[in-house]
Structure formats: C-alpha cells, structure tokens
Amino acid sequence: MRSEGKYPRRIQLEPMVHFRKSRGMSLGLVNSQGEEWHRFRSLLSKKMLRPKEIEQYNPQINTVSKDLVERLGVVKADNSHIQGVELEIFKWALESVGTILFEERIGCFDEVPSTEAREFIGHVLGYFRTMQSLLFGPPLYKIRPTKEWLTHCEHGDKVFELGKAFVQKRVDALSRSSEAQTTSKQSSLLTHMLAASELSRDEVVHTLVDLMQGAIETTSNTVLWTLYQLATHPTAQEKLYNEVMNVVGEHGDVTTDALAKNAVRQSLSEETFRKFPVTFATSRIIPRDIEMGGYTIPKGSHVQASLYSMGRDPKLFNDPETYNPDRWLGMHNDEVSKLPSLAFGHGARMCIGRRIAEQEIYTGISQIVRKYKLEYDGPEVKPTLQLVMTPDKPIVMKFVPRR
Ligand code: HEM
Which of 90, 113, 210, 225 has a CB 3.0–4.6 Å from the CB of 28, allowing a cystine? Predict the structure, then answer.
C-alpha cells in the first residue's frame, strides 16, 4: 500500500470491464487505470472528498432515512418482526445515493412506487446478483454469450438507460433555469460534471452509474451488520440511543451538527467494520519490487490484504471475537493506534464515496435507533462472501417502537 505509485492500480472487475467494452463505454473510475483513472478521479474528488461539499446533501439523506423508518413501520408485523428488512435497506441505499447523484428522488418508498422506481430496484438488484456468479465463475461469457451473461447485460443496459433518463431530466431542468450558469464551485456533483468540459454526456452517465454501483451493496450491508450488532448487544445500543437523543433535537432531524457531536457512532462503525468488513480485502498491483517478511515480491504482482483476517487477529486486537466498540474510543489505545482503518481502502485510490457513505450510514442508523429498539433472538448470523461480505441468512430482527 505504501508503494503504490502515482496511479495506484487495482485488479479490474472483469465482467464489468467486458460489459463496458462491449458497449463502447469508458471503463469508469472503478476499473480504469493510469492517466484515464486520474482524469476521472481529479474531477470527482473535488466534489466528493471535501466534508463541506458533502454536507450539502445532509437534508436529503436525512429525509430518505426518515422515509425508511416510516416504511419499516408499515412492513413490521404485529409482533414487531420484520421479514425482508434486507430489501428495505437496499432500497434506502439506492434512494439515498440516487438522490445525491441524480439530484432527484427515485421514489423507492412512495406508497405506490413509480414504474421507474420499480425498474430501478429490480434491475440494480438483478445486475448485482448476476455479477456475483460471473465474477467468481469461469469467464465463459468472454468466449460466448452465456444465458447468465445475457441476463446480466439485460439488467446492465436497463440500469444505464434509467440513469441516462435521470441525467436528461437534470439537463432539461438546468437549461430552463439560471442554474446552468452555476459555477462548479457552488454546484452539486451532477451539475459540476455536466459543466466540466472533460466529460462527454455519456461519460457523465457512465460515471454516475459507476458511483451508484460502488455505493449500494457496500452501504446497505454495512447498515445491516450494524443493526445486527446493535440488536445483539443491548448495552452498545442503549449507549448509541442515549447519545442520538442528546444530539438530535425535538424536530428529529439528524443534522451535520448532530453528526459532528456523536462520537459513539464512529466507534460503532469502526467495530462493525473490524468484524464484518463488507469489502473484505484491499488490493494493489504493485509498481515495483517490494520486500515483505523476508520475501521479494516482484513488480506487477497482485497483493491483497485481508481485512477480515486482520480484524480478527489476536495479535492485533485483544479478544477479537468480542464486539466492543469502546476499544476505538481511546485514541491512545495501543490496540487501535497502530493500525489504520482500511475499510475504505488507502491512499490516492481509497474509496471516493467514503464521506457520502459515512453520512448516509450514520444518519440512517441514528434515525432507526431513535424510533426503534432492536432485538434479535434467532440463530447466529455469520458472514458469507458474495460481491461484498453479507449475512449468510436473512436477519429477522424485532423493531420495537420506542414510544
Ligand atoms: C460502507 C460503504 C463503503 C465501503 C466500505 C467502501 C469501500 C471501498 C473500498 C475498500 C474501495 C477500494 C479502495 C482502494 O482500492 O484503496 C472502494 C472504492 C470505490 N468506492 Fe467505495 N465503499 C463504500 C461506499 C461507497 C459509496 C457510497 C460510493 C459512491 C458514492 C463508493 C464509490 C467507490 C468508487 C467509485 C471506488 C473506486 C475508486 C477509485 O478506484 O478511484 N463507495 N470503496
């Protein structure tokens, strides 16, 4: 990681690359390398990595999270159990990032979701499910269009088509208003990209879809793991609840001020990532020979660090199987000060959506614990490897209304 060079390289997600090449699309931020990657990255990082820029999305993220809480109330059974909470959290992740990227609500939580919203949910889900088997199976799709590949493409094409329609709506709105003159300094991400001469209109759509794909499975599964941990660790849950109630006012909005004052959520999140790192490994193709543990690893090798193994290593963490958010509270604590948090990767190519993800996750969790006490008495849930690290079974938790 420390020897990653000016243009850090990660291995590519082959089905994604194949799909994009077959449609003549650019590879986007996730899969491009070298100068092409740098061009995308420099344009986006101005808008995505500065906390002040991300704060502008707080009201939308808060509203989407409140809608999720309301939706949970609708799908909750009389005994407070929710079957299929995974889908509701998935919709929350899609709606949150969609609202930021397209500057418009998708409508996943509308009483009767629009055709657009239903298609978005179905095709994004389908795209991820088919991607998983293509990614881990033999790449036959590169030789001939297998059935699975064709289904994947059908979902992929539809996701891009829907994304394009949302971008077009924004373009139309801008051309009607004086916002078209807005300088990229004051604008949100999409407006900034549309104003940038470096990107064609198609590249704007491809980049937004890239960001969406990076955002949904990661944030939704992180929220699921956090809820599961809270439901099974009542003391940690009460501590978070008390702090949320202290920092969130009567209006019930999770503002950026409230987020800044809430220290418990940070430690909770670090501890959840330690035990259940959704992106279970971080990797680089190294640009020069390196020495490691007495071995020479030649330039061009793919080197991968397993976040899952590191998080559960007793040499790095005391009693690693125990869920203990407090271990992250003391910055002088030896245990955590010697290890940087790698959940979002590292260096120049670290996750560009980190600030958005943190804001979404903290807001979503805060809104849920304000409203519900979480309980779980089902079988132990273990991690399993899909596109990201997900629960190995549906988590049927109880969402008991607080008042
Ligand atoms: C819990 C949530 C998330 C986690 C744990 C996560 C984790 C990661 C990791 C580990 C990487 C690789 C970094 C590296 O190679 O050093 C990455 C890259 C990336 N992530 Fe995330 N991510 C999350 C949310 C998001 C969100 C919300 C977005 C978009 C809004 C996003 C977009 C991306 C993109 C585009 C890349 C590729 C960046 C590049 O290659 O320059 N991620 N993410």
Answer: 210
For residue 268, give its domain range: 14-282+320-401
Predicted local distance difference test score (pLDDT) of residue 176 = 78
Indicate whether 190 belongs to any domain: yes
Does residue 24 lie in a domain region? yes
Supply the pLDDT for residue 292. 86
In a domain, 2, yes or no: no
pLDDT score of 197? 77
Q: How far is the CA of 21 from the centre of ligand 1 (A)?
A: 22
**252 backbone φψ class: left, alpha, beta (φ>0; ψ -120 to 50):** left
Q: Are strands 383-385 and 290-292 parallel, antiparallel or unpaired?
A: unpaired
pLDDT at 1 over 60: no
Per the structure, the count of domains in the chain is 1
Res. 57: pLDDT tops 60: yes
Query: Is 184 a residue whose pLDDT tops 50?
Result: no
| CA of 33 relative to ligand 1 center, distance in Å | 15
CA–CA gap between residue 180 and residue 176 (Å, rounded): 8
In short, whether 223's Cβ falls inside 6 Å of ligand 1 is no
Q: What is the pLDDT of residues 323-345, one digit of tens each?
A: 999 888 765 556 655 566 789 99
pLDDT for residue 76: 94
pLDDT attached to residue 196: 80
Domain of 227, CATH number, reads: 1.10.630.10
Mean pLDDT value of segment 249-274: 86
**Residue 5 belongs to a domain:** no
Residue 355 beta carbon below 6 angstroms from any ligand 1 atom: no
